[in-house]
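Researcher: Following up on the earlier apo prediction. This time include the ligand. It's flavin-adenine dinucleotide, with the SMILES given after the sequence.
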Amino acid sequence: MYAGSKAFFYALSHNATLRRLASQYGLATSESFASRFIAGETIEAAIEASRRLQSQGLLITLDYLGERVRTVEESAAATREYMRLMDIIVDAGIERNISLKVTQLGIDVDRATCVDNLRRILEPAARHEFFIRIDMENSPYTERTLEIFETLWEHQYRNLGVALQSYLYRTEGDVRRMNELGARVRLVKGAYKERSSVAYQQKGEVNAAFVRLARVLLDEGTYPAIATHDPGVIEEIRAYASARGIAKDRFEFQMLYGIRRDLQASLVAAGHRMRVYVPFGREWFPYFMRRLGERPANVGFVLTALVRER
Ligand SMILES: Cc1cc2nc3c(=O)[nH]c(=O)nc-3n(C[C@H](O)[C@H](O)[C@H](O)COP(=O)(O)OP(=O)(O)OC[C@H]3O[C@@H](n4cnc5c(N)ncnc54)[C@H](O)[C@@H]3O)c2cc1C
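Model: Understood. Below is the ligand-bound prediction.
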């Protein structure tokens, strides 16, 4: 079921008709079905959502949604949008933390385009003390993403971190590779449909790998981000950190906008750093479909919202 539902929603996420229909209705009002997971289509809506979260003691990272860009022009437009976003964030005075994807910045055009675009973002980011996190996409991009990350790291861009996925067999090696650099890792379970030749298929195996890797990051990593909504996994990690005397300011938890807000609040109340990933923008459909694939019960939630809107 776990792998099956992911595959089903992954296939739907590339359906043009569904995408068009959803885009028309999904964020039409603040009650619309996608509003629970997406902060809005505009930067202004994302800033407003971030202010609200920060006022509750939460940290934020902003993600301008977009992926699988095929042309130089589209990748340049995404880069300009990130630069504009940084200017607006500085003016708004909210936290300076951004997440982005290499397929949004042109890796499918060619590597040089992607590196150039990233450097155009990283220059002002360094000047204004932003932290930039590179999300991890599906496995054909893993090695290329890490190589680009290392190239930028060699060029002394240190306001930069990357995400690694516990469902991939290779991730143990990648965790060590990033720890040796002293780079900040966000650990996630992994949101894409992957084959059994590269990734664990059973939830139990993915969870066990997550806890194992989180421990290595806590012991040897640099300010790791533990990104999950899984209460059992979170408890194991809290117990481990506390038993090892690892202070609460040496790592942070992260969750997605609109998911387990109760757990987000309780971690803040327990004195943990808790960062919310705030996605916004017009290209929200594939992101939204990944959220449905993780938890098919969300389909019920979407349908209820649709019925309410009629
Ligand atoms: C901050 C952050 C950044 C991320 N970045 C990446 C990335 O770069 N690359 C990548 O591949 N993946 C990324 N992910 C997604 C991640 O890989 C998982 O797909 C996602 O977090 C669901 O897994 P889980 O750890 O929450 O555990 P699960 O075992 O899927 O869920 C545990 C519990 O969390 C709750 N929950 C989980 N998902 C949902 C949902 N969609 N709706 C409602 N409740 C839910 C439920 O209560 C569920 O029982 C990111 C996740 C977070 C939190």
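Model: The pocket of flavin-adenine dinucleotide is lined by residues 135-136, 163, 165, 188-192, 227-230, 254-256, 259-260, 277, 291, 294-295, 298 (CB under 6 Å).
Researcher: Noted. I'll compare it with the apo version next.
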